[in-house]
Write a structure and sequence with these properties.
ten-stranded mixed beta sheet, Rossmann fold, Protein-Tyrosine Phosphatase, Chain A, UDP-N-acetylmuramoyl-L-alanine:D-glutamate ligase, 23% strand, 3 domains
Protein backbone atom coordinates (compact mmCIF):
# COMPACT_ATOMS: atom_id res chain seq x y z
CA UNK A 1 0.00 0.00 0.00
CA UNK A 2 1.28 3.44 -0.95
CA UNK A 3 0.51 6.87 0.45
CA UNK A 4 -0.29 9.11 -2.54
CA UNK A 5 -0.95 12.84 -2.62
CA UNK A 6 -2.25 14.30 -5.91
CA UNK A 7 -1.48 17.97 -6.62
CA UNK A 8 -4.21 18.91 -9.10
CA UNK A 9 -6.57 16.10 -8.12
CA UNK A 10 -9.58 17.78 -9.73
CA UNK A 11 -8.44 17.02 -13.28
CA UNK A 12 -10.39 14.30 -15.07
CA UNK A 13 -7.42 11.95 -15.48
CA UNK A 14 -5.94 12.75 -12.06
CA UNK A 15 -9.25 12.07 -10.30
CA UNK A 16 -9.82 8.90 -12.30
CA UNK A 17 -6.41 7.45 -11.46
CA UNK A 18 -6.73 8.54 -7.82
CA UNK A 19 -10.05 6.71 -7.57
CA UNK A 20 -8.70 3.58 -9.25
CA UNK A 21 -5.72 3.42 -6.91
CA UNK A 22 -7.87 4.07 -3.84
CA UNK A 23 -10.05 1.17 -4.95
CA UNK A 24 -6.88 -0.94 -5.08
CA UNK A 25 -6.20 -0.16 -1.41
CA UNK A 26 -3.79 2.78 -1.54
CA UNK A 27 -4.17 5.84 0.70
CA UNK A 28 -5.13 8.75 -1.54
CA UNK A 29 -5.52 12.45 -0.77
CA UNK A 30 -4.76 15.60 -2.72
CA UNK A 31 -5.43 19.24 -3.45
CA UNK A 32 -6.64 21.56 -6.16
CA UNK A 33 -7.56 25.18 -6.58
CA UNK A 34 -11.33 24.72 -6.58
CA UNK A 35 -13.01 21.49 -7.65
CA UNK A 36 -16.47 21.66 -9.20
CA UNK A 37 -19.06 19.16 -10.41
CA UNK A 38 -18.84 16.67 -11.91
CA UNK A 39 -15.36 15.95 -10.51
CA UNK A 40 -16.20 17.11 -6.98
CA UNK A 41 -19.16 14.70 -6.96
CA UNK A 42 -16.97 11.96 -8.44
CA UNK A 43 -14.37 12.28 -5.68
CA UNK A 44 -16.98 12.56 -2.93
CA UNK A 45 -18.75 9.41 -4.11
CA UNK A 46 -15.44 7.55 -3.75
CA UNK A 47 -14.71 9.02 -0.31
CA UNK A 48 -11.54 10.78 -1.44
CA UNK A 49 -10.73 13.83 0.68
CA UNK A 50 -8.75 16.77 -0.67
CA UNK A 51 -7.85 20.39 0.05
CA UNK A 52 -9.63 23.02 -2.05
CA UNK A 53 -6.62 25.30 -2.33
CA UNK A 54 -2.88 25.02 -2.80
CA UNK A 55 -1.01 25.69 0.43
CA UNK A 56 2.50 24.86 1.62
CA UNK A 57 1.06 23.67 4.94
CA UNK A 58 -0.66 20.75 3.20
CA UNK A 59 2.67 19.38 1.99
CA UNK A 60 4.40 20.12 5.31
CA UNK A 61 1.86 17.84 7.00
CA UNK A 62 2.49 14.86 4.70
CA UNK A 63 4.29 11.81 6.13
CA UNK A 64 7.81 11.51 4.69
CA UNK A 65 6.99 8.23 2.93
CA UNK A 66 4.28 9.90 0.79
CA UNK A 67 4.67 9.87 -2.98
CA UNK A 68 3.41 13.13 -4.50
CA UNK A 69 1.77 12.96 -7.92
CA UNK A 70 2.25 16.30 -9.68
CA UNK A 71 -0.35 17.00 -12.33
CA UNK A 72 0.50 18.02 -15.87
CA UNK A 73 -1.05 21.47 -15.34
CA UNK A 74 1.16 22.24 -12.34
CA UNK A 75 4.32 24.32 -12.75
CA UNK A 76 7.13 25.89 -10.75
CA UNK A 77 5.82 28.62 -8.50
CA UNK A 78 2.88 26.56 -7.28
CA UNK A 79 3.32 26.66 -3.46
CA UNK A 80 2.81 22.93 -3.03
CA UNK A 81 5.21 22.06 -5.85
CA UNK A 82 7.81 24.29 -4.23
CA UNK A 83 7.23 22.64 -0.86
CA UNK A 84 7.67 19.16 -2.36
CA UNK A 85 10.99 20.17 -3.89
CA UNK A 86 12.17 21.91 -0.72
CA UNK A 87 11.32 18.89 1.45
CA UNK A 88 12.85 16.54 -1.11
CA UNK A 89 9.75 14.34 -1.05
CA UNK A 90 9.39 11.57 -3.59
CA UNK A 91 7.37 12.82 -6.55
CA UNK A 92 6.24 11.48 -9.89
CA UNK A 93 4.02 12.29 -12.85
CA UNK A 94 0.59 10.82 -13.48
CA UNK A 95 1.83 9.02 -16.60
CA UNK A 96 4.77 7.43 -14.77
CA UNK A 97 2.46 6.40 -11.91
CA UNK A 98 0.06 4.74 -14.35
CA UNK A 99 2.93 2.91 -16.03
CA UNK A 100 4.34 1.67 -12.73
CA UNK A 101 1.18 0.95 -10.74
CA UNK A 102 -1.58 0.10 -13.22
CA UNK A 103 0.14 -1.16 -16.37
CA UNK A 104 3.14 -3.06 -14.97
CA UNK A 105 2.48 -6.79 -14.94
CA UNK A 106 -0.24 -6.59 -17.58
CA UNK A 107 -0.32 -6.80 -21.34
CA UNK A 108 -0.44 -3.16 -22.45
CA UNK A 109 -2.56 -1.88 -25.34
CA UNK A 110 -1.82 1.77 -26.13
CA UNK A 111 -3.97 3.79 -28.53
CA UNK A 112 -2.06 6.76 -29.95
CA UNK A 113 -2.57 9.32 -32.70
CA UNK A 114 -3.57 12.94 -33.15
CA UNK A 115 -7.28 12.08 -33.47
CA UNK A 116 -9.60 9.29 -32.37
CA UNK A 117 -7.70 8.11 -29.29
CA UNK A 118 -10.53 8.39 -26.77
CA UNK A 119 -13.15 6.73 -28.96
CA UNK A 120 -10.82 3.94 -30.10
CA UNK A 121 -9.55 3.24 -26.57
CA UNK A 122 -13.10 3.24 -25.19
CA UNK A 123 -14.27 0.90 -27.93
CA UNK A 124 -11.31 -1.44 -27.36
CA UNK A 125 -11.88 -1.53 -23.59
CA UNK A 126 -15.57 -2.24 -24.02
CA UNK A 127 -15.00 -5.01 -26.58
CA UNK A 128 -12.69 -6.69 -24.04
CA UNK A 129 -15.19 -6.14 -21.22
CA UNK A 130 -18.10 -7.53 -23.25
CA UNK A 131 -16.00 -10.63 -23.91
CA UNK A 132 -15.49 -11.13 -20.16
CA UNK A 133 -11.83 -10.10 -20.11
CA UNK A 134 -12.11 -7.42 -17.35
CA UNK A 135 -9.58 -4.95 -18.81
CA UNK A 136 -8.11 -1.98 -17.03
CA UNK A 137 -8.09 1.35 -18.78
CA UNK A 138 -7.11 5.00 -18.69
CA UNK A 139 -9.10 7.16 -21.10
CA UNK A 140 -9.16 10.93 -21.43
CA UNK A 141 -12.95 11.02 -21.62
CA UNK A 142 -15.81 9.18 -19.93
CA UNK A 143 -16.94 6.04 -21.81
CA UNK A 144 -20.69 5.72 -21.33
CA UNK A 145 -20.43 1.94 -20.85
CA UNK A 146 -18.16 2.37 -17.82
CA UNK A 147 -19.10 5.76 -16.37
CA UNK A 148 -15.48 6.42 -15.38
CA UNK A 149 -12.21 7.07 -17.18
CA UNK A 150 -9.86 4.77 -15.25
CA UNK A 151 -9.95 1.30 -13.74
CA UNK A 152 -7.39 -1.28 -12.68
CA UNK A 153 -7.26 -4.50 -14.67
CA UNK A 154 -8.04 -7.99 -13.42
CA UNK A 155 -4.87 -10.01 -12.66
CA UNK A 156 -4.82 -11.48 -16.17
CA UNK A 157 -6.48 -8.52 -17.88
CA UNK A 158 -5.19 -6.25 -20.62
CA UNK A 159 -4.66 -2.59 -19.71
CA UNK A 160 -5.90 -0.17 -22.42
CA UNK A 161 -4.42 3.33 -22.37
CA UNK A 162 -5.21 6.42 -24.40
CA UNK A 163 -1.65 7.30 -25.41
CA UNK A 164 -1.43 11.08 -25.35
CA UNK A 165 1.52 12.74 -27.09
CA UNK A 166 1.25 15.83 -24.87
CA UNK A 167 4.16 16.35 -22.48
CA UNK A 168 4.26 14.54 -19.14
CA UNK A 169 5.02 17.22 -16.51
CA UNK A 170 7.09 20.33 -15.92
CA UNK A 171 10.00 18.04 -14.93
CA UNK A 172 9.52 15.55 -17.78
CA UNK A 173 8.94 17.03 -21.23
CA UNK A 174 8.63 13.67 -22.97
CA UNK A 175 5.24 12.65 -24.33
CA UNK A 176 3.03 10.81 -21.86
CA UNK A 177 2.82 7.70 -24.02
CA UNK A 178 6.50 6.83 -23.47
CA UNK A 179 5.52 5.67 -19.96
CA UNK A 180 2.88 3.15 -21.05
CA UNK A 181 4.96 0.04 -21.94
CA UNK A 182 3.19 -0.82 -25.22
CA UNK A 183 2.83 -4.45 -26.27
CA UNK A 184 0.05 -3.71 -28.73
CA UNK A 185 0.34 -0.17 -30.10
CA UNK A 186 -2.07 1.66 -32.37
CA UNK A 187 -1.20 4.81 -34.30
CA UNK A 188 -4.37 6.19 -35.82
CA UNK A 189 -2.86 9.26 -37.52
CA UNK A 190 -0.14 11.88 -37.09
CA UNK A 191 -0.64 15.62 -37.63
CA UNK A 192 0.77 18.85 -36.28
CA UNK A 193 -1.00 19.69 -33.02
CA UNK A 194 -0.27 21.07 -29.54
CA UNK A 195 1.48 24.13 -30.86
CA UNK A 196 2.43 25.10 -27.30
CA UNK A 197 4.86 22.19 -26.98
CA UNK A 198 5.67 21.13 -30.57
CA UNK A 199 7.20 23.56 -33.03
CA UNK A 200 6.70 21.53 -36.21
CA UNK A 201 5.25 18.34 -37.65
CA UNK A 202 8.74 16.83 -37.57
CA UNK A 203 8.91 17.54 -33.85
CA UNK A 204 5.62 15.64 -33.39
CA UNK A 205 6.99 12.76 -35.44
CA UNK A 206 10.08 12.53 -33.24
CA UNK A 207 7.86 11.83 -30.24
CA UNK A 208 5.91 9.18 -32.12
CA UNK A 209 9.15 7.56 -33.28
CA UNK A 210 10.27 7.38 -29.64
CA UNK A 211 6.97 5.66 -28.82
CA UNK A 212 7.44 3.16 -31.66
CA UNK A 213 10.94 2.41 -30.44
CA UNK A 214 9.53 1.19 -27.10
CA UNK A 215 7.44 -1.64 -28.61
CA UNK A 216 9.14 -4.97 -27.86
CA UNK A 217 10.18 -7.31 -30.64
CA UNK A 218 7.33 -9.69 -29.83
CA UNK A 219 4.82 -6.85 -29.80
CA UNK A 220 2.86 -5.39 -32.71
CA UNK A 221 2.34 -1.94 -34.17
CA UNK A 222 -1.06 -1.39 -35.78
CA UNK A 223 -0.77 1.67 -38.01
CA UNK A 224 -3.21 3.54 -40.21
CA UNK A 225 -1.95 2.66 -43.68
CA UNK A 226 -3.97 5.51 -45.19
CA UNK A 227 -1.95 8.13 -43.28
CA UNK A 228 1.47 8.88 -44.77
CA UNK A 229 2.80 10.54 -41.61
CA UNK A 230 1.77 7.58 -39.46
CA UNK A 231 3.47 5.23 -41.91
CA UNK A 232 6.57 7.41 -41.79
CA UNK A 233 6.96 7.09 -38.01
CA UNK A 234 6.35 3.33 -38.25
CA UNK A 235 9.13 2.80 -40.78
CA UNK A 236 11.86 1.85 -38.28
CA UNK A 237 9.77 -0.34 -35.96
CA UNK A 238 11.56 -3.35 -34.47
CA UNK A 239 8.35 -5.37 -34.22
CA UNK A 240 5.60 -6.68 -36.47
CA UNK A 241 3.79 -3.86 -38.29
CA UNK A 242 0.21 -4.37 -39.48
CA UNK A 243 -1.47 -1.71 -41.61
CA UNK A 244 -5.20 -1.08 -41.24
CA UNK A 245 -7.45 1.31 -43.13
CA UNK A 246 -9.77 1.79 -46.05
CA UNK A 247 -7.12 1.63 -48.78
CA UNK A 248 -6.42 -1.64 -50.57
CA UNK A 249 -2.71 -1.44 -49.67
CA UNK A 250 -3.59 -2.25 -46.03
CA UNK A 251 -3.35 -5.77 -44.67
CA UNK A 252 -6.66 -5.17 -42.87
CA UNK A 253 -8.79 -3.48 -45.51
CA UNK A 254 -12.14 -1.94 -44.66
CA UNK A 255 -14.51 -1.67 -47.59
CA UNK A 256 -18.19 -1.64 -48.61
CA UNK A 257 -18.99 0.99 -45.97
CA UNK A 258 -22.72 1.62 -45.61
CA UNK A 259 -24.63 3.81 -43.20
CA UNK A 260 -28.25 3.07 -42.23
CA UNK A 261 -30.52 3.32 -39.20
CA UNK A 262 -27.90 4.91 -36.98
CA UNK A 263 -25.24 2.27 -37.63
CA UNK A 264 -22.29 1.93 -40.00
CA UNK A 265 -21.65 -1.43 -41.62
CA UNK A 266 -18.35 -2.42 -43.21
CA UNK A 267 -16.44 -5.49 -44.32
CA UNK A 268 -12.88 -6.18 -43.19
CA UNK A 269 -10.73 -8.23 -45.52
CA UNK A 270 -7.50 -9.66 -44.14
CA UNK A 271 -5.44 -9.60 -47.30
CA UNK A 272 -2.84 -11.94 -45.81
CA UNK A 273 -5.28 -14.88 -45.85
CA UNK A 274 -8.36 -13.53 -47.72
CA UNK A 275 -10.50 -13.89 -44.58
CA UNK A 276 -13.37 -11.42 -44.55
CA UNK A 277 -16.03 -10.55 -42.01
CA UNK A 278 -18.88 -8.05 -41.87
CA UNK A 279 -19.07 -5.75 -38.83
CA UNK A 280 -21.28 -2.87 -37.76
CA UNK A 281 -20.83 -0.07 -35.22
CA UNK A 282 -23.29 2.43 -33.71
CA UNK A 283 -21.07 5.30 -34.88
CA UNK A 284 -20.99 7.52 -37.98
CA UNK A 285 -18.09 8.54 -40.18
CA UNK A 286 -15.37 6.79 -42.16
CA UNK A 287 -12.88 7.80 -39.46
CA UNK A 288 -14.83 5.71 -36.95
CA UNK A 289 -14.64 2.77 -39.34
CA UNK A 290 -10.84 3.09 -39.22
CA UNK A 291 -11.02 3.30 -35.43
CA UNK A 292 -13.08 0.12 -35.38
CA UNK A 293 -10.72 -1.72 -37.75
CA UNK A 294 -7.86 -0.89 -35.37
CA UNK A 295 -9.90 -2.36 -32.51
CA UNK A 296 -10.61 -5.51 -34.53
CA UNK A 297 -6.88 -5.94 -35.17
CA UNK A 298 -6.00 -5.39 -31.50
CA UNK A 299 -8.79 -7.63 -30.20
CA UNK A 300 -7.86 -10.46 -32.54
CA UNK A 301 -4.30 -10.13 -31.28
CA UNK A 302 -5.41 -10.97 -27.73
CA UNK A 303 -7.52 -13.90 -28.91
CA UNK A 304 -11.06 -12.55 -29.33
CA UNK A 305 -13.25 -14.02 -32.04
CA UNK A 306 -15.08 -11.87 -34.59
CA UNK A 307 -18.36 -12.76 -32.88
CA UNK A 308 -17.01 -11.53 -29.53
CA UNK A 309 -15.79 -8.32 -31.16
CA UNK A 310 -19.18 -7.68 -32.77
CA UNK A 311 -20.91 -8.26 -29.42
CA UNK A 312 -18.86 -5.39 -28.00
CA UNK A 313 -19.51 -3.20 -31.04
CA UNK A 314 -23.25 -3.78 -30.86
CA UNK A 315 -23.49 -2.71 -27.21
CA UNK A 316 -21.08 0.24 -27.32
CA UNK A 317 -22.69 3.42 -25.98
CA UNK A 318 -20.09 5.94 -27.09
CA UNK A 319 -18.08 8.45 -25.13
CA UNK A 320 -19.13 11.74 -23.65
CA UNK A 321 -18.40 14.84 -25.71
CA UNK A 322 -17.75 12.88 -28.92
CA UNK A 323 -20.74 13.68 -31.13
CA UNK A 324 -22.84 13.28 -28.00
CA UNK A 325 -26.53 14.19 -28.27
CA UNK A 326 -27.15 16.36 -25.22
CA UNK A 327 -30.64 17.64 -26.04
CA UNK A 328 -33.48 17.16 -28.49
CA UNK A 329 -36.60 19.23 -28.72
CA UNK A 330 -39.12 20.43 -31.24
CA UNK A 331 -37.33 18.76 -34.13
CA UNK A 332 -33.88 20.14 -33.27
CA UNK A 333 -30.89 18.04 -32.14
CA UNK A 334 -28.09 19.54 -30.03
CA UNK A 335 -24.66 17.87 -30.28
CA UNK A 336 -21.61 18.31 -28.03
CA UNK A 337 -18.26 17.45 -29.62
CA UNK A 338 -14.72 17.84 -28.28
CA UNK A 339 -13.30 19.40 -31.46
CA UNK A 340 -9.80 20.69 -30.73
CA UNK A 341 -8.17 20.59 -34.18
CA UNK A 342 -9.35 21.49 -37.72
CA UNK A 343 -9.19 17.86 -38.83
CA UNK A 344 -11.36 16.78 -35.90
CA UNK A 345 -13.79 19.59 -36.74
CA UNK A 346 -13.95 18.54 -40.39
CA UNK A 347 -14.44 14.86 -39.60
CA UNK A 348 -17.18 15.64 -37.08
CA UNK A 349 -19.12 17.78 -39.54
CA UNK A 350 -18.69 15.19 -42.30
CA UNK A 351 -20.02 12.48 -39.98
CA UNK A 352 -22.99 14.64 -38.95
CA UNK A 353 -23.75 15.20 -42.64
CA UNK A 354 -23.78 11.44 -43.09
CA UNK A 355 -25.79 10.65 -39.98
CA UNK A 356 -28.38 13.41 -40.34
CA UNK A 357 -28.88 13.41 -44.09
CA UNK A 358 -31.21 16.08 -45.41
CA UNK A 359 -31.02 18.13 -42.21
CA UNK A 360 -29.37 21.52 -41.84
CA UNK A 361 -26.09 21.57 -39.90
CA UNK A 362 -25.42 24.56 -37.62
CA UNK A 363 -21.79 24.54 -36.44
CA UNK A 364 -20.74 26.58 -33.40
CA UNK A 365 -16.96 26.51 -33.02
CA UNK A 366 -14.88 27.80 -30.11
CA UNK A 367 -11.17 28.27 -31.00
CA UNK A 368 -9.71 27.25 -27.68
CA UNK A 369 -6.80 24.83 -28.08
CA UNK A 370 -3.24 26.06 -28.43
CA UNK A 371 -3.39 24.99 -32.07
CA UNK A 372 -6.74 26.45 -33.19
CA UNK A 373 -6.25 29.82 -31.49
CA UNK A 374 -3.29 30.55 -33.79
CA UNK A 375 -3.52 31.32 -37.49
CA UNK A 376 -1.53 28.18 -38.39
CA UNK A 377 -4.78 26.55 -39.51
CA UNK A 378 -6.80 29.61 -40.60
CA UNK A 379 -7.46 28.07 -44.02
CA UNK A 380 -8.21 24.57 -42.69
CA UNK A 381 -10.66 25.82 -40.06
CA UNK A 382 -12.49 27.80 -42.74
CA UNK A 383 -12.64 24.74 -45.00
CA UNK A 384 -13.95 22.57 -42.16
CA UNK A 385 -16.72 25.03 -41.23
CA UNK A 386 -17.69 25.26 -44.91
CA UNK A 387 -19.22 21.79 -44.44
CA UNK A 388 -21.96 23.40 -42.34
CA UNK A 389 -25.00 25.33 -43.57
CA UNK A 390 -24.72 27.85 -40.74
CA UNK A 391 -21.51 28.61 -38.84
CA UNK A 392 -20.69 30.78 -35.88
CA UNK A 393 -17.18 31.24 -34.47
CA UNK A 394 -16.72 32.23 -30.85
CA UNK A 395 -13.94 34.18 -29.20
CA UNK A 396 -10.32 33.07 -29.11
CA UNK A 397 -9.40 31.70 -25.71
CA UNK A 398 -6.70 33.77 -23.95
CA UNK A 399 -5.75 35.81 -27.03
CA UNK A 400 -3.04 37.65 -25.10
CA UNK A 401 -0.81 34.58 -25.50
CA UNK A 402 0.03 35.58 -29.07
CA UNK A 403 0.73 38.69 -31.09
CA UNK A 404 -2.22 39.86 -33.18
CA UNK A 405 -0.57 38.71 -36.41
CA UNK A 406 -0.22 35.18 -34.96
CA UNK A 407 -3.85 34.74 -33.89
CA UNK A 408 -6.68 33.07 -35.75
CA UNK A 409 -9.09 35.69 -37.11
CA UNK A 410 -12.70 34.57 -36.53
CA UNK A 411 -13.86 37.60 -38.49
CA UNK A 412 -11.85 36.52 -41.55
CA UNK A 413 -13.21 32.98 -41.23
CA UNK A 414 -16.78 34.28 -41.12
CA UNK A 415 -16.19 36.66 -44.01
CA UNK A 416 -14.79 33.91 -46.23
CA UNK A 417 -17.66 31.56 -45.36
CA UNK A 418 -20.17 34.31 -46.16
CA UNK A 419 -18.45 34.86 -49.50
CA UNK A 420 -19.03 31.17 -50.21
CA UNK A 421 -22.75 31.54 -49.53
CA UNK A 422 -22.74 30.08 -46.01
CA UNK A 423 -24.59 31.89 -43.24
CA UNK A 424 -21.74 32.78 -40.88
CA UNK A 425 -20.98 35.08 -37.98
CA UNK A 426 -18.06 35.74 -35.63
CA UNK A 427 -19.68 36.42 -32.25
CA UNK A 428 -17.28 36.56 -29.29
CA UNK A 429 -19.87 36.79 -26.50
CA UNK A 430 -21.43 33.35 -25.76
CA UNK A 431 -24.79 34.82 -24.69
CA UNK A 432 -25.05 36.88 -27.89
CA UNK A 433 -23.99 33.83 -29.90
CA UNK A 434 -26.76 31.73 -28.37
CA UNK A 435 -29.32 34.49 -29.03
CA UNK A 436 -28.25 34.60 -32.67
CA UNK A 437 -28.35 30.82 -33.06
CA UNK A 438 -31.82 30.61 -31.51
CA UNK A 439 -33.00 33.38 -33.83
CA UNK A 440 -31.99 31.45 -36.95
CA UNK A 441 -32.61 27.83 -35.91
CA UNK A 442 -35.58 25.96 -37.27
CA UNK A 443 -37.13 22.48 -36.96
CA UNK A 444 -34.86 19.81 -38.42
CA UNK A 445 -31.62 21.59 -37.54
CA UNK A 446 -28.67 19.77 -36.04
CA UNK A 447 -26.71 22.21 -33.87
CA UNK A 448 -23.13 21.11 -33.13
CA UNK A 449 -21.20 22.78 -30.32
CA UNK A 450 -17.56 22.10 -31.19
CA UNK A 451 -15.20 22.95 -28.33
CA UNK A 452 -12.75 21.30 -25.95
CA UNK A 453 -13.96 23.66 -23.23
CA UNK A 454 -17.18 25.01 -21.74
CA UNK A 455 -17.93 27.55 -24.51
CA UNK A 456 -18.94 30.15 -21.95
CA UNK A 457 -21.99 28.16 -20.87
CA UNK A 458 -23.42 27.91 -24.40
CA UNK A 459 -24.34 24.26 -23.92
CA UNK A 460 -26.68 24.98 -21.03
CA UNK A 461 -28.16 28.07 -22.65
CA UNK A 462 -28.99 26.20 -25.86
CA UNK A 463 -30.40 23.25 -23.95
CA UNK A 464 -32.68 25.69 -22.12
CA UNK A 465 -33.62 27.36 -25.41
CA UNK A 466 -34.71 24.05 -26.90
CA UNK A 467 -36.89 23.43 -23.85
CA UNK A 468 -38.46 26.87 -23.67
CA UNK A 469 -38.63 28.20 -27.19
CA UNK A 470 -41.24 27.09 -29.67
CA UNK A 471 -39.10 26.17 -32.67
CA UNK A 472 -41.98 26.92 -35.01
CA UNK A 473 -41.65 30.62 -34.21
CA UNK A 474 -37.92 30.88 -34.81
CA UNK A 475 -36.91 32.99 -37.74
CA UNK A 476 -35.77 31.46 -40.96
CA UNK A 477 -32.03 31.84 -41.52
CA UNK A 478 -32.65 33.99 -44.55
CA UNK A 479 -33.97 36.89 -42.46
CA UNK A 480 -32.40 40.38 -42.33
CA UNK A 481 -29.79 39.13 -39.85
CA UNK A 482 -28.14 37.52 -42.83
Amino acid sequence: MKKLYFIGIGGTAMAGVAAALRHEGHQVTGSDNGVYPPMSDFLAARDISYHEEFNTAHVDALPPDTTVVIGNAMSRGNPEVEAVLNRRLSYTSLAALVGGQLIAGHSSMVIAGTHGKSTTASLAAWVLEAAGRRPGFLIGGIPENFGEGCRAAAPDGVFVTEGDEYDTAFFDKRSKFVHYRPDIAVINNVEFDHADIFDSLEHVKRSFRQFVNLIPGNGVLLVNGDDSHAMDVAADAHCEVLRFGCGDSCELWGRDIRYADGRTGFTIIDQRNSHEHRFSIPLAGDFNVRNAIAVVAAARRVGLSDAEIQKGFSTFLGIRRRMEVIAEGKGITLIDDFAHHPTALRLTLQALREKYRGRRIVACFEPRSNTTTRNIYQKEITEALALADVAVIGSIDRPQRYAENERLSPERVAAELTRQGIIARAIPDPTEMVLWVTSVMRPGDVIALCSNGKFGGAHGMLQQALTEQDASTTRDAEDPLH
